[in-house]
């Protein structure tokens, strides 16, 4: 009978993906997996690497379930497998996240006669051709093999007799399914299915139908079982314990089911797309109108890029992926990191160039104590300033003034606004000897009411939530009123471009802490932060022209000399600490 190519890589209970078999020669494959990253055991729930779904939020680096009331109130009513209707899709998905037994059935309110079912038609109770019955359809139908493309991400909820199949997906192998002679397989009217990857039931995918000319292969599946594959020297072990071929890692396909094979990549196989954060995504996700890389680089340079489209004759189910996108558009957005003007960047803080316009550095503030600006700081929104712990003392809170929109503190410009410090929060694990955790927050008093700060010329810098937003060799900007060459005093705000530097322990052995610190500088040392720049910003701009405060000027040696780069507190490491004190909704529009 018919030979069916098994495309579907699915989870028998949770997630899975589909694609054709890769035929690369393992011995010729480049090792694309970064072991150091792999040790952190990232999965599809790791919000340092991926976006959470609208019904999830990020807590300490992991996507966790929101409560239903935390979803937007507007949306499409849906029906669940428990027979109950819910006012929005987001609320149902949130409830399912908390109680996995409750799953999506169809859009709209529940009808007694409307049921979705899926089964396997084949040799055994754990493999066969996928057969579905859609809501409001009278008969069961098979799924076209061509729509089990490797861009699909589908879960099939199998009947209880398949419970023994471990929820790690399907085997990517071929099977010959044999059927009785009287069995008809009408492949000219099979269904096409489109899935996006967040689904936990095949019912959430979009089904379409079009008449094809001649026979089409039908989609089949062989479930992964505990003894299906034994590890070899050429195996990749997923975080969930499943073993796959090394050739399947970093190909843009979630072969593991938990996406752990695609999150620690130095490059990507095939035509998949490599995000700057080291994540491989299907090439179809590039320029699809939705940011899939946390770094945003999949939606850059999209002019003239036309994703492949398919003409469908009849849409049989609701497009819940469109509903998911709509829910995302309803989540709160922040206005941070975007300047009113953009200066021309020049390779020309030591060795820096004076700032001429307040709008060029709208997040830069000066911290004044006694006779002059003693440190810099970064405005991050509301009444909050980020700075270095070594710049401030809680006992001196009443002495500090926060100067915003300041260019020159000897010849003050008219845009300057001065705020008083109301409260200082120094990181509880700050070590003055090693400069570990050299970070602090200043809450300004505000005027006329406490905690209401109006800074018309200031724009907050965005606070990074992931340490993967920027990489070594990325070019960033440092600014401040620190000492110049030969330690001469500087009165006007200066700025300069520096490159992020990896492996900084070679410059400062036994003194550099990679998780908490970031080095930046130039090869010749011509541009550097120096005394007086402390607490000020090292800002980096992403592919979408949004600026993040990547570092806080902390320490260094021999200002402006080669092989002595400046050391900055790595702000992404302190996102949870900052959000605990200032409120997450103030500083992030992602994963909240």
What do you see in this structure?
6% of the residues lie in helices and 24% in strands. It is mainly β. A hairpin with a 2-residue loop joins strand 23 and strand 24. The two termini are 52 Å apart. The N terminus is likely disordered.
Structural class assignment: mainly beta
What's the average pLDDT? 79
Question: What's the N-to-C terminus distance?
Answer: 52 Å
Count of β-strands: 33
> Which percent range fits the helix content?
under 10%
Low-confidence stretches: 1-29, 150-174, 342-351
What is the number of helical segments per DSSP (H or I, 4+ residues)? 5
**Largest pleated sheet:** 6 strands, antiparallel, barrel
- Spatial strand sequence of the major β-sheet: 28-29-30-33-32-31
Radius of gyration from the CA trace? Answer: 28 Å
> Strand fraction band?
15-25%
Q: What gross morphology would you assign? A: elongated
Features:
mainly beta, 5 helices, 592 residues
Q: Short description, anyone?
A:
Helices cover 6% and strands 24% of the residues. The chain is mostly beta strands and 592 residues long.
Q: What's the SSE blueprint?
A:
Layout: E1 3-4, E2 8-9, E3 17-18, H1 35-38, E4 56-59, E5 62-65, E6 78-80, E7 85-86, H2 89-98, E8 104-107, E9 117-124, E10 127-133, E11 141-142, E12 175-176, E13 191-194, E14 206-209, E15 220-222, E16 235-237, E17 243-245, E18 273-274, E19 280-281, E20 314-315, H3 320-330, E21 353-354, E22 364-369, E23 372-381, E24 384-387, E25 401-404, E26 417-426, E27 440-444, E28 475-480, E29 494-501, E30 517-521, E31 537-541, E32 547-555, E33 566-570, H4 575-582, H5 584-587
Antiparallel strand pairs: 1-12, 2-3, 4-5, 6-7, 6-8, 9-10, 10-11, 10-15, 13-14, 14-20, 16-17, 18-19, 21-29, 22-23, 22-25, 23-24, 24-27, 25-26, 26-27, 28-29, 28-31, 29-30, 30-33, 31-32, 32-33
């Amino acid at each position: 009978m018919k030979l069916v190519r098994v495309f579907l890589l699915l989870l028998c209970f949770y997630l899975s993906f589909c694609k054709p078999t890769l035929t690369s020669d393992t011995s010729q494959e480049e090792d694309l997996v970064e072991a150091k990253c792999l040790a952190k055991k990232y999965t599809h729930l790791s919000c340092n690497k991926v976006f959470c779904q609208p019904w999830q939020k990020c807590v300490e680096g992991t996507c966790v379930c929101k409560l239903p009331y935390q979803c937007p109130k507007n949306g499409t009513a849906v029906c669940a497998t428990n027979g109950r209707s819910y006012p929005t899709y987001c609320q149902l998905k949130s409830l399912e996240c908390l109680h996995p037994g409750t799953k999506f059935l169809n859009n709209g309110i529940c009808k007694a006669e409307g049921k979705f079912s899926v089964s396997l038609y084949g040799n055994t109770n754990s493999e066969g051709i996928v057969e579905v019955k859609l809501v409001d359809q009278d008969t069961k139908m098979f799924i076209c093999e061509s729509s089990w493309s490797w861009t699909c991400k589908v879960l099939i909820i199998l009947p209880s007799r398949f419970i023994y199949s471990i929820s790690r997906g399907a085997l990517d192998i071929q099977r010959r399914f044999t059927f009785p002679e009287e069995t008809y397989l009408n492949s000219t009217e099979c269904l096409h299915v489109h899935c996006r990857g967040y689904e936990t039931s095949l019912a959430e995918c979009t089904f379409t139908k079009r008449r094809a000319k001649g026979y089409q292969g039908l989609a089949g599946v062989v479930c992964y079982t505990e003894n299906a594959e034994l590890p070899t020297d050429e195996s990749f072990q997923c975080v969930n314990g499943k073993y796959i071929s090394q050739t399947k890692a970093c190909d843009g396909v979630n072969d593991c089911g938990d996406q752990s094979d695609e999150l620690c990549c130095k490059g990507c196989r095939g035509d998949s797309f490599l995000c700057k954060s080291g994540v491989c995504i299907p090439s179809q996700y590039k320029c699809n109108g939705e940011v899939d890389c946390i770094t945003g680089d999949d939606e850059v340079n999209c002019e003239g890029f036309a994703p492949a489209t398919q003409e469908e004759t009849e849409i049989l189910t609701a497009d819940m992926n469109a509903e998911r996108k709509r829910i995302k558009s309803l989540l709160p957005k922040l206005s941070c990191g975007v300047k009113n003007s953009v200066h021309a960047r020049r390779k020309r803080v030591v060795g820096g160039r004076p700032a001429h316009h307040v709008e060029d550095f709208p997040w830069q503030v000066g911290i004044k104590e006694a006779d002059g600006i003693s440190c810099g700081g970064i405005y991050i929104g509301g009444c909050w300033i980020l700075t270095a712990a070594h710049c401030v003392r809680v006992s001196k809170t009443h002495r500090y003034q926060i100067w915003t929109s300041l260019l020159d503190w000897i010849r003050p410009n008219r845009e300057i606004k001065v705020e008083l410090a109301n409260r200082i929060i120094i990181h509880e694990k700050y070590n003055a000897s090693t400069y570990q955790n050299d970070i602090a927050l200043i809450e300004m008093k505000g005027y006329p009411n406490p905690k209401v700060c109006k800074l018309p010329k200031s724009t907050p810098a965005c606070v990074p939530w992931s340490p993967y937003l920027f990489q070594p060799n990325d070019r960033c900007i440092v600014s401040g009123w620190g000492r110049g060459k030969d330690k001469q005093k500087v009165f006007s705000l200066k700025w300069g471009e520096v490159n992020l530097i990896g492996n900084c322990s070679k410059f400062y052995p036994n003194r550099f802490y990679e998780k908490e610190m970031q080095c930046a500088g130039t090869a010749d040392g011509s541009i550097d932060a120096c005394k007086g720049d402390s607490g000020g910003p090292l800002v980096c701009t992403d592919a979408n022209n949004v600026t993040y405060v990547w570092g806080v000027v902390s320490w260094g040696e021999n200002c402006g000399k080669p092989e002595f780069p400046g050391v900055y507190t790595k702000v992404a490491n302190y996102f949870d600490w900052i959000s605990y004190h200032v409120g997450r909704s103030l500083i992030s529009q992602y994963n909240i």
